[in-house]
From TrEMBL, chains A, B:
GO terms for molecular function: alcohol dehydrogenase (NADP+) activity; butanol dehydrogenase (NAD+) activity; metal ion binding; methylglyoxal reductase (NADPH) (acetol producing) activity. Gene3D superfamilies: 3.40.50.1970, Dehydroquinate synthase-like - alpha domain. Residues 9-176 form the Alcohol dehydrogenase iron-type/glycerol dehydrogenase GldA domain. The lineage of its organism: Bacteria, Pseudomonadati, Bacteroidota, Bacteroidia, Bacteroidales. It comes from Sodaliphilus pleomorphus. This is Iron-containing alcohol dehydrogenase. Belongs to the iron-containing alcohol dehydrogenase family. It comes from the Bacteria.
Amino acid sequence: MQNFDYMTPTRLIFGRESIVKLPSVMSQFGKKILLAYGGGSIKKIGLYDRVIKLLEGYDIVELSGIQPNPKYDPSVLDGVRLCKEHNIDVILAVGGGSVLDCSKAIAAGAKYDGDPWDLISYKAKAQAALPIVDIITLAATGSEYDCGGVISRTETNDKIGYMDPHLFPAVSILDPVYTFSVSKKQTAAGIADAMNHTMEQYFAADTTLLNDGFCESMLRSLMINGRKCLDNPEDYNARAEMMLDCTYGCNGILSLGNSPSGWPCHAIEHALSAYYDITHGEGLAIITPRWMRHILSEKTIDRFVKYGINVFGIDASLPKQEIAQKAIDATYKFFESINIPMHLRDVGIDDSRIDEMAHHVAVNEGLDKAYVPLTEQDIREILVASL
Amino acid sequence: MQNFDYMTPTRLIFGRESIVKLPSVMSQFGKKILLAYGGGSIKKIGLYDRVIKLLEGYDIVELSGIQPNPKYDPSVLDGVRLCKEHNIDVILAVGGGSVLDCSKAIAAGAKYDGDPWDLISYKAKAQAALPIVDIITLAATGSEYDCGGVISRTETNDKIGYMDPHLFPAVSILDPVYTFSVSKKQTAAGIADAMNHTMEQYFAADTTLLNDGFCESMLRSLMINGRKCLDNPEDYNARAEMMLDCTYGCNGILSLGNSPSGWPCHAIEHALSAYYDITHGEGLAIITPRWMRHILSEKTIDRFVKYGINVFGIDASLPKQEIAQKAIDATYKFFESINIPMHLRDVGIDDSRIDEMAHHVAVNEGLDKAYVPLTEQDIREILVASL
């Protein structure tokens, strides 16, 4: 078991109508709020009006139009400028992981004198950040319970995951009802995203019995509840279980004491969505089974066997190799069964930039230190197998 | 799924030699430290000397002799007096759950003008508390990651579990090596304590798939790693897994979204250890299987079936009633196999005060709202079955 230093100070207010606590939550932080959101879905479901009404008496400055795979320019830069101009006290992020990730970069940038990209690219370390409160409308990224974010910079094809302990949300408000209207496509992508967060931690050299069981239970829950959400988008319990499952995805609680894994599927997928702006969860679902097949060996087979038996209920009396293959097949088939496009060509990616992406990942993502180390050639092979 | 409002802001510094971070941790809080500890085992293992050396330059006031089932008088009262007299900035608790629980009561009492019992008995609400740092030497209670404590008041036979969000430790330092010297008796009691914390949350009317799997994994880990700790007290990995398992026991993370269960075994055991000052974990191990047998019914059987299959690997094709009975037997036999005395008479308790204890629990513990509501007669029957 590995040493660790862990803290997640975020307060989770979870459940139906938990938004009623918003005014008392916001009153801790001051009167000037930057309200950050995306493309208007929060207006469609009435959440925008509800927030505005609950926050009567506050000074609200708005930053809207934050996109999926949130962009440094214009969203982060605009947000930082607004915070500085209006002397903002607190950021209220309303939306999915992209809105929240963008808000985290803004929160750090607002308290930094230089170019905010210095912080995202780890050239400088944040000394402070504005407090962040969020209301989550999409179950997927787990950004509501971690201190990280992913920001894309279009002109350099960079998509960087950065973390800083100042960036834990102070409070995350999670009402599963706000996810009822999430499309089947985005629901499925959220399931795949959270499942992959779990697998990235489960597939490691040194794990604990507790973490293994916790991850296996997470994967089973995401598949069962995720499918229920797709079948009946207004199934409160299924949406609620899926939402909380997703919340645990990225703050490390699933793998305290495990050895680092390198998060290889994320590393590869970040190139895909940086180069092609595809849906992150779909990219992960495409990469995952190909990565699994690539790293399956005598050395890793026991992990796949455990995964197959405990997550998919594969007959433990079969030969190891057969269990492992069935487990990988089952992973692929699950994603396919929830209608995720399972080839890169299905999401508009051909082989023209494979070499370039493989090189980018190999140079920038440190996968030589992954659970199973990956060279540029390995990454290229995984991408080619995904075409 | 139930609504919840959850936060655990404690920083966990876990692993071999994590104590080296102590000076930088303490430097956040000020120069005047109340060093709280128990009967001297921390001197025997060299931890006391290590702490004193690491904290050269600090003003240290000592409160020693804190007992298991920590006492309001003298420990809490003495601690509060010392904090006020010496204008203490931070409490450093070094020891097991009892030392830490006592330190929590002191931390609240030091910032309160009236009788500290007001806080423990919920007559008054803490407005502030001194910060607490702890170094844990016994894996059991989970106090290092929750905001609660249990304090006994001998003259009234009260043993009260109280909670207050001000009482989360700021930092918990957990080095499994400090648990190498824990006796077999205390190791076994710690296993039983943490297992029961998990069961108290698992046996509830409304649970989630994720929580069920998390709890089942916790129970399996505690049994497997706990036994390894007993067989080889210096097995680092087993001590480490057990230590982290125990840490999750009481802060609610195992049951976010579950319906409340009432923690019935704890409620009953608190009377046993208040009246007879027995070892808490042993009392829990004695009560648990009798409570299980008492509440097994058509209404609860599915929970026992799930428990039996997933925790003990009982054949799922057997009749439900048989699985449930086998699961309860297996629970009893596991505790017996780690040499816990499994009858009240083995720990010096006869039938002379059963009625009095049953009445005390029925009046004070609210078990009419438990997972399976318990009347005074139910509690008496469970106690009689435990004799």
